[in-house]
Fold each of these.
Amino acid sequence: MSLQQLVQPPASRPLHGSVEFWMQKARELGGRVTVEFDRKRDGLSFRPARLTVFIVDASDVRVDGSPDPTSELWDEEVNEDYISIGAKAVSVENEMERLGYSLKFKLEPVEARYGDGYFNSMLVLVLTEHGFADAPSVARCLERTSTNPPSTVQPQFTHARRDIESALRSAGSRLTAALGYDAGIAQQILTGAVAYYLDERFHITNRERLGFG
């Protein structure tokens, strides 16, 4: 390979090795790759998040002759690769948890850009504007969240709203475009994911466990 070739932009980023392996095996066996998100509670904290990967047929039964399931520590980029090849979670509920955990990484740059307090205020505003508060799981979290209304005269107001909306839109569109969920199920998953994210961000369940709910 020449020096000139090394500096040319690739047509697309290559998949991580483990994702490429499972995609090829699924093609050989006539099945599809699926993942199971696992993040067990350990008191008031969690054990490290993991993805278990395996191959199933059209009836969601593990394909005969497929490799042993691989359990991988969470890597956001690897998870995005699995999404790009259409690897759904084992259930709608598990997909909510998987996306809810992923939202932390998608929204971290926005939080860093605007600061914790202003981000929290804008997040609550955006979620309310977009109807998330109509879902009981999200309403439960928002009712237990104490934030001040964000200043609307600051220049960052429009930018923060746009950035939060963009992160949510990116996550939601992947559910339909890459994973193939219909719009109704995708909305259900995104709503559940937001509730998962809020619960941890604002320590809702932990506060209830400690008697501060």
Amino acid sequence: MKKALVILHGIMVALAAFFTVSLIYTLVISIFVLITGIEQVPTQVDYCLMVLAVMLAIIPIYLWYRRYIVSGEVEQAKASDVFTIRNIGVFLMIGLGCQYFFVGILSVLRPLLETLFSYYDETMDSLFATDPIIVAVYVVVLTPIIEELMLRGIVFSRLRKGLGFPLANVIQATIFAIYHWDVIQGAYAFALGLVLAYVYEKTRTLLAPILLHFIINASGFLLAVYKGPDIPIWLAIIVGGALLVGGVYLFDKSINEKNRK
């Protein structure tokens, strides 16, 4: 019963966080329409307003997140401890590994799930429907910050107060997947959510999953916009899997060495 209440609370916290962001976006749109008198907001303007709304939403979400920090149990590490050359190298391995491995897997599944992939393609097209610089700000910078604050910072932290790591990790990853409102993107988000929460659990600072999320989104953005060289699907899966496993291994090794010291 206690675990069920913790899970329910975690879900309610997630809904409240998502509602906060949606409310701020609605307010931004309403103010824009009120000032300009434009009822049909152009797509590119709407995208810019969404970016502005996320920037504004980061403030209350961050303040909310701080409430879940208990006596230094979380955020023990300094920024200088996270943003090291070694960590960046390891997270580059994990980030690129995620991109190539999951893109390879999705390429294998695409012929079998044409309908689902058509929705996925529409989602991706809408995500990149404006100026690349604005898209980069939203996808590469703001999204990692707001999503890590909500999902790992608030939801996962709340779940971990009453649940073991495996169950808390699966639940927050599931919520992260549903948050994307697309089956294909959701499956990808679920897998990434597991990795990001693992990094947060091990480092006890939100800066680490934000950095990894930044690298994952940045590599995905560059591949989508600038179209990297075509490589065979099987090679993408093998290389991506090797980078992912190798990166996680080196990350674990680094954490264990730090704990021994």
Amino acid sequence: MSELLVLYELKNAAAILTLNRADKRNALSRALIEAISSAFTRAKNDAAARCVILNAAGSVFCAGMDLAELQASLDIPKDQSPIWDDAFRLASLYDQIYACPKPTIAAVQGAAVAGGAGLVTVCDFAVSVPEAKFGYPEVRRGLVAAMVMPHLMRHVGERMARFLLISGELIDAARAVQCGLLNEVVPADRLLSRAQELAKACAEGGPNALAKTKEYLHQFSHQAVSMEDAAKASAAPRLTQECQEGLRAFFAKKAPPWIS
């Protein structure tokens, strides 16, 4: 397997970015987040790329934050904790993808959970295989998925967003289409080709017209919370006793202390 964390391929006017950390379920380590950001910057500046397709190697699209890095952060003194930088780094990536002037398409071949589900929500389109699962289980660890809230609510509405964010339940691909999180579900052997069909359809639009359309959609979305505030809202709970206990219980494969 290539040592590159994100593979870059140009095919039929689409830049295909592949998360290449399958042995770690494409978990969002600091290095992977940086690699995704660099790949999107490359695609943005690539004149031959009219659209960007984000997919992943292995059976899992993205399992969320890197557990090893998260566990290591529990033993770092609060005044030296990397959580603020970690949160801002991920929030910046979400904002970069969401504001990309070129159409973005998530092609989801497996589970997209927590931060991985966030990657799906910030893309313009999302298609998946029937077996894919989606969810935000952060509250079950004492965490808050603040960074994805505005993006999720735009897609699914407040009622469904409340269900996903408060219950922490996972939903299947069929329900994800029904609620608006996904555009469509296709067989596994059609996933990438369908994403390329969508990219081709988008490429028929004028580059400036597409960029302006995305710019106005961004403006009209009325996101009330800044990227910085969303990052802070996501990071702050990780310093609380509740979250520390919840994460330690999770890593120890025990029930959190608030479950009797």
